[in-house]
Amino acid sequence: MPWLKLKLNVAKTHAQPLVEALEEWGAISVTLEDAADQPIFETHWDKNPLWSQVKVTGLFPEYTNTEDTLARVRELMGVAETPPHEIDLLGDEDWAHSWMAHYKPLQVGHNLWVVPSWCEAPEPSAINIILDPGLAFGTGDHPTTSLCLEWLSEQTLAGKTLLDYGCGSGILSIAALKLGAHETYAVDIDAQALEVTRRNATHNGIHHGMQVMLPSELPQNFQADIVIANILFGTLIELAPEIKARVRPGGWLVLSGLLGDDQATEVRPHYEPPFDFTRREKQKWFLLAGRKQAEVG
Question: Structure pTM?
Answer without folding.
Answer: 0.69
